[in-house]
Design a protein that fits this description.
Layout (H helix, E strand, L loop, with lengths): L1 H12 L1 H63 L4 H6 L3 E2 L7 E2 L2 H32 L2 H13 L5 H17 L11 H24 L3 H9 L4 H12 L1 H16 L3 H6 L17 H12 L5 H30 L5
Antiparallel strand pairs: 1-2
């Protein structure tokens, strides 16, 4: 007690010396703290700049791709009329006497494959999503969903050979007039390829619907199927439609399957049993060395690529609009 009082009195009376030591220590600590704060502030200022540079890489890459497509496409249209390109019904760029660059046969081939893929993928994909979301147990979902998503990891060239060597001979047993290269076989296989995308994204959208909505519908006497089709499906419509549109854009841009199993005969018709050529298949054909650098045929791949880019951009914008319009917030 006495010693503590003494120290207190000593501090009170001779506080200058003790306070001076304390002041020296506090200044050193303040310097260290201030230097540490400066480093932290510098790091905090640098992090947004670094993240901005990283994010700008993708943006600059997109601008670079679009700029390249536009520049090369303009060069192509110096030799070919844009009206002939957009409304021409014959695509024959390798003619000796006359070259025809009507994009409609390539567009028709692309849409035929995409249409068949949608017919295959949408019903099976949404049905799979309904089963995984509404009927499957947690254990079953954990087993089936990864297996279903494995299909998305299969290389597309494997899908192409599968369509050419397995699906086409199988279809020829039921459709005798089916050619070895056709639109039906790659369309079906492309549908199988995009099916996991529709199933997975749709299942995620349906699983996000609150259980209280399901319980309310069941309490009113609805069956499980009625709840799935009339309650959960409309509530998750925005996510389902977005998944379908994104899958369609993926099908439009598919290359290897249609290159291997579709053929290389551009035709402006609705026949799915004969050889076709899609926009991506034509780009592969010319890029493999069938045209010299600087020729009109060479620049035509950029015009076709730009058309394909517009298709994909339109589909992505449509997915954004649908998702925004029909979005349900819970």
């Amino acid at each position: 007690m006495g010693s503590s009082c003494y120290s207190f009195l000593a501090f009170g009376k001779g506080g200058f010396t003790v306070g001076q030591k304390a002041e020296k220590l506090s200044v050193q600590e303040l310097i260290q703290k201030s230097s540490g704060k400066k480093q932290k502030k510098l790091i905090e200022k640098m992090i947004p700049i670094i993240l901005l540079l990283i994010a700008s890489v993708s943006v600059l890459t997109t601008f670079g791709i679009v700029g390249t497509l536009i520049v090369e496409t303009v060069i192509f249209f110096n030799d070919v009329k844009i009206t002939d390109f957009l409304f021409g019904t014959e695509w024959y760029p390798f003619g000796n006497t006359e070259q025809l660059f009507g994009i409609l046969p390539l567009v028709a081939g692309t849409l035929k494959v995409t249409g068949i893929a949608v017919v295959v993928a949408v019903p099976f994909g949404i049905a799979s999503a309904i089963f995984l979301s509404e009927y499957a147990t947690d254990k079953t979902r954990r087993i089936i969903k990864p297996i279903l998503e494995v299909l998305a990891g299969v290389p597309t060239i494997v899908y192409g050979f599968f369509a050419l060597t397995f699906v086409t001979p199988l279809l020829q047993q039921f459709i005798p007039g089916l050619k070895i290269f056709n639109a039906l076989s790659p369309g079906i296989v492309v549908g199988v390829m995009i099916l996991p995308m529709i199933a997975s994204l749709s299942e995620d959208a349906m699983s996000s619907v609150p259980n209280s909505i399901r319980e309310g519908a069941l309490a009113m006497g609805s069956t499980k199927l009625e709840v799935a089709l009339r309650v959960v499906l409309p509530a998750a419509l925005s996510g389902i439609m977005a998944s379908v549109v994104l899958a369609v854009s993926r099908a439009i841009g598919e290359t290897m399957i249609v290159s291997l199993a579709g053929g290389s005969t551009p035709k402006f018709d609705l026949d799915v049993t004969e050889s076709i050529q899609t926009m991506t298949a034509y780009i592969v054909q010319v890029s493999s060395g069938d045209a010299g650098y600087g020729t009109t045929i060479y620049y035509s791949i950029y015009a076709v690529g730009f058309t394909l880019f517009l298709f994909t951009l339109l589909m992505n914008y449509l997915a954004h609009v649908i998702s925004k319009k029909y979005r349900e917030e819970y």
